[in-house]
Amino acid sequence: MFNIYFYIANYQLATAEVITQNGAFLYGYGDLNAKGELTQTKVVTKFLRIVTQVTPSSVLTSFPFRIGVQVTLEAPLDSATVIFPSSVGGLLGAVLFHNLATGEVLTLESVIGAPSDVQLLTKAPHTRVLAFTLEQVGLDAGEYEIIPHILMTHETLPEGLLDSISTNAEKLGPDYLKVPFRREGGRFTVTN
């Protein structure tokens, strides 16, 4: 018997039980019907809404001013516990800049080596901010997604699930993008 996990980091975990024999699925047992399909549709419910706004959302490569990132989090069901790594004074601790054309990932930490901030969030919106300059990050012309580096203290996440995604899944870097999240906003364009 094995469990299949339906996992999105800011959604509740769902599972399906499957039975195998000699490396092959046994249809008609566990949560699989005789055709090898799930007997019930699995639904995962969002427990944390993540909205990222970038102001301004488009700049020239010569733009000399600070660019603001605002991340708003809400727990639509009840509450959610979130960890903000390297966070000081209510700021957003770090963000990743994902170049949508090249796949390149750049990172920015507001304060290197700062302690993590654990926050219990409720239905009331909770906002964290961070500002940066193009020169500070080294952004070239391109279309980016700006992604907040936040960690979830998920309900009883199965041991080894995150490691199966990447051993560096929670660290600030490209492997963090392998963790499935549903986010809104965060698009940012740099043009010549």
Q: Mind explaining what this structure looks like?
A:
With 192 residues, the chain is mostly beta strands. The chain folds into two domains: 45 residues, no CATH class; 143 residues, Immunoglobulin-like, CATH 2.60.40. 5% of the residues lie in helices and 40% in strands. The strands form five sheets. Strands 6-16-13-9-10 form a five-stranded mixed beta sheet, with no helix packed on it. It is elongated and about 65 Å long.
As for the CATH topology of the largest domain, it is Immunoglobulin-like
Which runs of at least 5 residues are low in confidence (pLDDT < 50)? Answer: none
**What is the approximate shape?**
elongated
User: Which CATH architecture of the largest domain would you pick?
Assistant: Sandwich
Condensed summary:
With 192 residues, this protein is mainly β. It is built from two helices and 16 strands.
What layout of secondary structure does this protein have?
Blueprint: E1 2-6, E2 14-18, E3 20-21, E4 24-25, E5 49-55, E6 58-60, E7 67-74, E8 80-84, E9 94-99, E10 105-109, E11 117-121, E12 126-132, H1 134-137, E13 142-148, E14 151-152, H2 161-165, E15 184-185, E16 187-191
Parallel strand pairs: 5-15, 6-16
Antiparallel strand pairs: 1-2, 3-4, 5-7, 7-12, 8-11, 8-14, 9-10, 9-13, 13-16
